[in-house]
Each structure stands twice: as structure tokens, then as C-alpha cells.
Amino acid sequence: MTRVWQWNRPVTVREVLEDLQQERSIAYTTVMTVMDNLHQKGWVRREVDGRAYRYTAVSTRAAYSAALMNEAWSQSDNPAAALVAFFGMMSPEQREALQDAVRMVSPNPVDNSADNPLSGPAGNPAGGPPANPEDGPPEPTATAAEGSAPADGTEPGGGR
């Protein structure tokens, strides 16, 4: 899929094969099988071009990434906590990109105050009080019982 997305045009198995062979030895039939599997799964569409098929991506890499994130998020039993944990893993550059994306889809400008979880300090992106005090405190992030080790270096459950 990386080649199909990079080239952003209909591609043949032969083109993908020749590009992959610059990196490693791979058989034509292997690439053909993978392209056919991608077609069967609905990731690419294909059209006949002479004796070959030309394959085109059904969606963009960005749309695919968004679908993966949405699927993972929707499976969480606590979506708010999952987002807080996700924001905590982001680099400052990633948080800035997220703020830019929110600005693109939001009718209201993004609030860059301490109340905005996306603009919090690097170590605590959810820092600051809730935007509306009636909303209560933010959802807790992972605790020792959920798998993270305590700050004192002891094992969860009390042992060393």
C-alpha cells in the first residue's frame, strides 16, 4: 500500500515489483498475491490495462490512519481517558499538528488557554482545570492497578 499511496496513481504489479526489488529480492507472484489480497479486502480497485491490472488506492493514507485511530478509540471503555493518555504520549510537534487539525474542522477557534487539554504543559497535556467547573475533574489516567509502575520503583502490588 505504501507504494500505491506514494505514487498516487494507478500502478501495475510490475511497477511495484521493480521498486521493491531495489530494496530486496521478491518474486512477481508474491507482489501479485498481495495486490490481489488488497483488492479483495477493498483497499484498492483495479482495472484491466492490456494483459495486466492497474491498481488504485480506494482511500488516502491519512483516511486509513484516521480509521485505525477511530477504531481503537471506539473500543475503549473510557474514551475520555484514552484521549488524555494519547495526548500525554504526543510530542509538542504532534500536539501542534493536532491543534492545527482541530482549527480546520472546528467552527470556533481553538482555546490556547490552560483550560485547553491540547495546550497544557508537555508533561501533562491535560493540565489545568476543566473548561467548565461543573464538568468536574478530568478522567484519571492509568494507575498502578491498570499496569503502570508506581513512581517509587516498587512493583504493582507492593513487591520490589
Strand order of the largest sheet: 1-2
Helix content: 40-55%
Query: Structural class from helices and strands?
Result: mainly alpha
Separation, N- and C-terminal Cα atoms: 46 Å
Q: List unreliable stretches of 5+ residues.
A: 120-160
Shape: elongated
Average pLDDT across residues? 77
Over all CA atoms, what is the radius of gyration?
A: 23 Å
- One letter per element, helices H and strands E, the order comes to HHHEEHHH
Briefly say what this structure is.
By secondary structure, the chain is mainly α. The protein has six helices and two strands, in the order αααββααα. The chain has two domains: 2-57, Arc Repressor Mutant, subunit A (Orthogonal Bundle); 76-142, no CATH class.
Structural overview:
This protein has 6 helices and 2 strands. The chain has 160 residues and is mainly alpha-helical. It starts with a helix and ends in a 55-residue tail after the last helix. α2 (13-20) packs across α3 (28-40). It folds into 2 domains: 2-57, Arc Repressor Mutant, subunit A; 76-142, no CATH class. It has a two-stranded antiparallel ribbon with strand order 1-2. β1 and β2 (52-57) form a beta hairpin. It is elongated.
